[in-house]
Specification:
The protein is of the alpha/beta class and about 230 residues long. The chain is about 25% helix and about 30% strand. Strand 1 (about 55-60), helix 2 (about 65-70) and strand 2 form a beta-alpha-beta unit.
């Protein structure tokens, strides 16, 4: 039996095939928490002054948010992604930004192996929700400094008219590729209360939960943005 590439590798490969080699880009003027630009808050979720702060992104993709925080916010940012092609894109786009580093690896393994601590950790449709939360959130908590922030955005469990999970098991979901096809993926789809319970078990306290809705879409929320703080 031939092993199939992960949907995340396939997504990156299709994107690179369509756009060609990554060229140098200026850092975006805004941090995005949703797939729709300009929706919801920006980098202020992580703190009002990030200068010199150590920030970690779990699932950085091509590096746009990390570049914004490093160049515009003057934070010291590490972006980690499971897919080497994404890291190649991130370095091609933003390798010129000295205080942004991009690393290939599994988010949970990185957190378990590193001895560093961070002033903020975040995930934008990244590792949070795709890695068992009881493992990932515990690992994040160990690497956060006291009173530091964890923020993450995930697809809203009600985005297609459904309901949030009533247990702690992942659901089967699909990811849309650049060519329009959909590939299966397992995802933990919790409401704010269930995320709060998981956060509490790891020494984190939920501080806000925002339902983000596309301004020109229907009334259903598309993105759930969770912010928490370490005790």
């Amino acid at each position: 039996m031939i092993a199939q590439p992960s949907p995340w590798y396939t997504h990156a490969a299709q994107r690179m095939a369509a756009t060609g080699p990554a060229s140098t880009l200026r850092a975006p003027s805004r941090m995005e928490w949703s797939t729709h630009r300009g929706l919801g808050p920006g980098a202020e979720v992580l703190g009002t002054d990030l200068r010199g702060r150590r920030v970690l992104e779990l699932g950085c993709g091509p590096g746009h948010n990390a570049a914004h925080l490093a160049e515009r916010g003057q934070a010291v940012v590490t972006g980690i992604d499971l897919v080497g092609l994404q890291i190649r894109r991130a370095r091609g786009h933003y390798g010129h930004i000295g205080n942004a580093a991009f690393i290939t690896g599994h988010a949970l393994h990185y957190l378990q192996a590193t001895s560093g601590t961070f002033d903020a950790v975040y995930s934008v449709f990244g590792a949070v929700g795709l890695v068992a939360p009881e493992l990932l959130l515990a690992a994040v908590s160990r690497r956060l400094k006291p009173h530091a922030v964890l923020a993450f955005s995930v697809p809203h469990p009600q985005r297609a008219g459904g309901l949030a999970s009533t247990d702690d098991r992942p659901r089967q979901d699909g990811v849309t590729m650049p060519d329009g096809t959909r590939l299966p993926v397992a995802r933990w789809e919790f409401d704010a209360d269930r995320w709060a319970a998981h956060l509490t078990r790891t020494g984190l306290r939920l501080t806000s939960a925002l339902d983000l809705r596309h301004p020109h879409g229907d009334h259903r929320p598309t993105t759930l943005l969770i912010t928490a703080r370490k005790h």
